[in-house]
Design goal:
Distance between the termini: 40 Å
Family: Belongs to the ABC transporter superfamily.
Mean pLDDT: 94
Protein name: Polar amino acid transport system ATP-binding protein
Membrane topology: Peripheral membrane protein
Pfam families: ABC_tran
Structural class: alpha/beta
Keywords: ATP-binding, Cell membrane, Membrane, Nucleotide-binding, Transport
Strand order of the largest sheet: 8-9-10-3-11-12
Bound molecules: adenosine-5'-diphosphate, magnesium ion
Largest sheet: 6 strands, mixed
Low-confidence stretches: none
Helix content: 25-40%
Order of helices and strands: EEEHEEEEHEHHHEHEHEEHH
Number of helices: 9
């Protein structure tokens, strides 16, 4: 059971506040006390070796995993718990759904619905979850498709698109819910190298519009150019957090230096 909230962490300027977050799979402790703060309007890039707990941590933010200890707030609310008279209660399904609707997530593997067209993929949740009228949902979807450069693909099926196009649709689909926070888990790792740039360009555009983003990535150029801060995770903890120039030019820990030595 996570610890009750502390007033210092209730600050509304933070989209995410994590303190001492722990998560195990069986006897394997994967998150060993993760601390992180993400301010609204900022882009935080999470870097770190494979197996360090990056995906698990993102999944905890989005209710896909349940934390066992520590404190995790997204959008000012505890993830999965409601606080009342100093006690914690598990959220009802409807409350979880409401909290999740404000969080967009983009995965390495796109995860589009294969039996739906691009447009249908995008309008499904806004209509079904947000209750937006179909006409309006279509209008907004077309605006989003224009933004990701795929207006011509509205009626195409995902299998007919390149990986880069599918990932841009996945981003548009997440944005259609009007999220307050976007989580990206290695969004370009499954792409052929020549398709990486078009997805990063869309993400860069989003960042420029002020979207709050947490991006797990191996794209060091993106982290350096677009990140407001860089978080280095290793062994289930945040080892360093700083500005990109601090991190890349002057890593403070041996572990970060070793990691950068391999990836740069
Ligand atoms: P990263 O994204 O940094 O590569 P992950 O969060 O995916 O790391 O995984 C961290 C560790 O947790 C790995 O050792 C992985 O095998 C383990 N793990 C992740 N998800 C599960 C799961 N559902 N069941 C068991 N072990 C898992
Ligand atoms: Mg991962």
């Amino acid at each position: 059971m996570p610890a009750p909230a502390d007033s210092r962490d209730s600050l509304e300027s933070f989209a995410v506040v994590a303190r001492g977050v722990e998560k195990s799979f069986g006897s394997h402790k994967v998150l060993k006390g993760v601390d992180l703060r993400v301010e609204y309007g900022k882009v935080v890039c999470i870097l770190g070796p494979s197996g360090s707990g990056k995906s698990t941590f993102l999944r905890c933010m989005n209710h896909l995993e349940r934390i066992e200890a520590g404190f995790l707030r997204v959008g000012g609310q505890l993830v999965g718990y409601r606080q009342h008279a100093g006690k914690l209660y598990e959220m009802r399904h409807s409350e979880v759904a409401r909290q999740r609707a404000d969080i967009g997530m983009v995965f390495q593997s796109f995860n589009l619905f294969p039996h739906m067209t691009v447009l249908q993929n995008i309008i499904e949740a806004p209509i079904g979850v947000r209750g937006i009228p179909k006409r309006q949902a279509i209008e907004e979807a077309m605006t989003l498709l224009a933004k990701v450069g795929l207006t011509a693909k509205a009626d195409a099926y995902p299998r007919t698109l390149s990986g880069g196009q599918q990932q841009r649709v996945a981003i548009a689909r997440a944005l259609a819910m009007r999220p307050k926070l976007m989580l990206f888990d290695e969004p370009t790792s499954a792409l052929d190298p020549e398709l990486v740039g078009e997805v990063l360009a869309v993400m860069k555009g989003l960042a420029a519009e002020g979207m709050t983003m947490v991006v797990v990535t191996h794209e060091m150029g993106f982290a350096r150019d677009v990140g407001d801060s860089v978080v280095f995770m290793d062994g289930g903890v945040v080892v360093e957090q700083g500005t990109p120039s601090e991190f890349f030019n002057n890593p403070r820990t041996e572990r970060a230096r070793a990691f950068l030595g391999k990836v740069l």
